[in-house]
Give the backbone structure.
Amino acid sequence: MPLIVAFDEPVEAELAARLCGIVDGIKVGLPAVIRGGLEWAREVSRAAGSCEGLRILDLKLADIGHVMRLSVEPFIGYYDGFIAHSFVGGEGSLDELKSYLDHHGARLVLVASMSHPGSRDVYDRALDFIMEVIERVDPWGIVAPATRPSIIGRLRARFASKKILSPGVGAQGARPGYALRAGADYEIVGRAITGASDPLAAAKSIIEAQEEVVRGGVEEDG
Ligand code: BMP
């Protein structure tokens, strides 16, 4: 099932290999890189490389193009996808990052809205503008909140072929499967898996819950 596990702390790199074949990918976050260091992030990438899963680096970039290129450069060849905020716009910023990643065969993922309630203050109000940026920059994927499936629905209606990655399942309260049902391609889960005493068992049980909702076994809305 389409599950991506978020590593926001420097967990044992081997966990990435043990999750191979169970989940569809891993996402390594900024706090994990700060604490674990560049070599740890590369080791995780090598461990995850033993299967076909996605390896996404989530530095939540939001800067001028030059600085974003400098930020991702040490990870090129180790990660397949890189997450940036969309509100910075295209010219001089995301356009440059997109060309750089294209040149290196890596994918860009843009945040369209976020899972925390405060995301309604700006991101959701600006969604039409955000969608224009996404249209222009043409990323491979979009981040949209599992906590607000209606936002996923709007993005899916506008971007039929882009991958939608949805965080907010588990620790933030969204239940597995509902973001997929609203149009997401992947659900992102961090603490509910990495903080579990048995992360593999936790991942498997989330996948079972996803399957049940997607099959239509659970009617009520998430
Ligand atoms: P958790 O399941 O532990 O709440 O982790 C969620 C993960 O998704 C974190 O890595 C976080 O940075 C990321 N994320 C999020 O929670 N909301 C967003 O809107 C965008 C994110 O990337």
